[in-house]
Design goal:
With 80 residues, the protein is α+β, with helices and mostly antiparallel strands. The chain is 31% helix and 18% strand.
Length: 80
């Protein structure tokens, strides 16, 4: 049987979350857990309670915005 708890600090190894993860007791910046919105599928998510997690989340958001802007520029939207 595989335990879902880390023995050292009592933090779940694969926590359950919905859309985002925020746990001040968990020192990890990025956590692989079970997403309730995806029927318990294991996915990686940033822990927004840590500075590292906030950095990962902001980089992801900037990447998405950059891809959208690049696509708009490349497709020439706004040209007459």
């Amino acid at each position: 049987m595989i335990s879902n708890m880390n023995n050292s600090d009592g933090v779940e190894q694969y926590p359950e979350f919905a859309c985002y993860y925020y746990n001040e007791r968990d020192p990890r910046g990025c956590v692989c857990g079970r997403d309730k919105t995806q029927c318990g599928k294991k996915v990686c998510v940033a822990n927004l309670a840590t500075m590292q997690g906030k950095f990962f989340c902001s980089m992801y958001i900037l990447l998405v915005i950059g891809v959208i802007v690049f696509g708009l520029i490349r497709n020439g939207l706004g040209k007459k």
